């Protein structure tokens, strides 16, 4: 029995040391990425040939690699240096240009840099004009971000609103359509944007053309001023052409 207790004690001690080392390595990686992102906006986009040329977390890079994303597209090379360095971004890109990934990467990196976890509450909100686009974004962010400790919810019409209502207070990232978002804001007391870190309005022109201009503008004031102590980033992407 004594030998067993000694062995168990040594095992827990070893696990404690390994956990401490992982934490220290994570802190070093975080600071390295943050430092490199400070001057990223000054970098010539043409030099960013691969995603490994961009200062990203190892978790995001691993997700990109496993999804076979190796080389950034033009919109990704042009926008990521600004969004990753903390700037607000207004971008325009054609369908199929890699716009979705250009939105998702800053969301993952923003929450990672902020030390977000499953218990952090809502940190990112992505608004898409259609159910199909919202579902596409939801699928990609779950695949690329699977190594991060974030939870994600999809709020769209045609699904169980009661199920959404129960989950909404526990997720870190929400991807939604404007109508569904406004419904939850009117009916769901668990939806809180007090800790919001990043707001993404995908295909902004389509959302505003759908008659949500006044409502969305009103919600912006809530998102941007809900907390004076947390950073808020607004990333707008307008889709044009086919």
Order of helices and strands: HHHEHEHEHEHEHE
| Structural class by sheet pairing and helices | alpha/beta
Q: What is the level 1 CATH name of one domain?
A: Alpha Beta
Give the overall average pLDDT: 82
Strand order of the largest sheet: 1-6-5-2-4-3
What is the percentage of strand-forming residues?
A: 5-15%
- Assign the CATH architecture of one domain: 3-Layer(aba) Sandwich
Distance between the termini: 72 Å
**Main pleated sheet:** 6 strands, parallel
CATH overall fold name of one domain: Rossmann fold
Low-pLDDT residue spans: 14-18, 220-230
CATH superfamily of one domain: P-loop containing nucleotide triphosphate hydrolases
Rg calc = 20 Å
Principal-axis shape equals: globular
State the share of residues found in helices, binned by percent.
Answer: 40-55%
Number of strands: 6
Describe the structure.
Keywords: ATP-binding, Helicase, Hydrolase, Nucleotide-binding, RNA-binding. It catalyses: ATP + H2O = ADP + phosphate + H(+). It comes from Cylicostephanus goldi. The protein is built from 8 helices and 6 strands, in the order αααβαβαβαβαβαβ. It is α/β, with parallel strands linked by helices and 242 residues long. It has a domain at 85-239: P-loop containing nucleotide triphosphate hydrolases (Rossmann fold), CATH 3.40.50. The protein has a 6-stranded parallel beta sheet with strand order 1-6-5-2-4-3, with helices on both faces. Strand 5 (198-202), helix 8 (204-225) and strand 6 form a beta-alpha-beta unit. The longest helix has 37 residues, at 2-38. Residues 14-18 and 220-230 have low confidence and may be disordered.
